Amino acid sequence: MVKVPIRLLAVDIDGTLLNPQFSISDADLSALHRAHAQGVEIIVVTGRRHTFALPIVQQLGFDLWVISSNGGVTRSLSGETFHRDMLPAQTCRELCGSMREFRGNTVLTFDKETKGALLAGKESFLHRLCGSD
Predict the structure, then answer these.
(1) Which of 13, 68, 72, 121 could lock 125 by a disulfide, CB 3.0 to 4.6 Å apart?
(2) Residue 48 — φ and ψ, nearest 5°?
(3) In this structure, are 78 and 93 located in the same domain?
(4) Distance between CA atoms of residues 57 and 54, nearest Å
(5) Domain hosting residue 105, numbered range
(6) Is 4 exposed, middle or buried (0-12, 13-18, 19+ CB in 10 A)?
């Protein structure tokens, strides 16, 4: 049997990279450093926004790619964007309208580096944001 070397390691943040104390354990940090030193490409993957992941991933101490926003954005730590897949405005409006049947609650995530990039709201807020049906 031929042993194939590991070439890529994709790690989630919540509950995987971060322990219950919301920090990276010394053992995990050491293991990621050893893998990186052996040429394994490390990628951090999260459903959260890039700005949430950034301070966590910076603790690793080496440049890597971060896949964030549930796969919608891929950026390096240095800010280089490799992939960005956003909903067209009309699709977003239609989605907001469809969410009204689910008690009018939804969450919209914007690919911005500013405070307030994550919005949650009731039907009245969504109506103002997304327009009428």
Answers:
(1) 121
(2) -80, 170
(3) no
(4) 5
(5) 89-130
(6) exposed
Active site (annotated) includes residue 133 = no
Contacts of 83 (CB under 8 A, 6+ apart): 73, 74
123 is a domain residue: yes
Q: Is residue 131's pLDDT more than 70?
A: no
Question: Which tokens go with 53?
Answer: 């992941």
Q: Which run of H or of E encompasses 75?
A: strand 73-76
- Greatest Cα pair distance in the chain: 62
Distance CA 12, CA 17 (A): 6
Task: Clarify whether residues 16 and 53 are in a common domain.
Answer: yes
Q: Do residue 26 and residue 68 come from a single domain?
A: yes
Average pLDDT for 44-66:
91
| Catalytic site residue from 12, 63, 85, 133 | 12
Which residue type occupies 124?
S
Residue 102 or residue 48, greater confidence: 48
What mean pLDDT comes out for the span 58-80? 91
Structure tokens at 50: 């890039």
Q: Are residues 79 and 94 in the same domain?
A: no
Q: Which residue has the tokens 């067209």?
A: 88
pTM, two decimals, is: 0.75
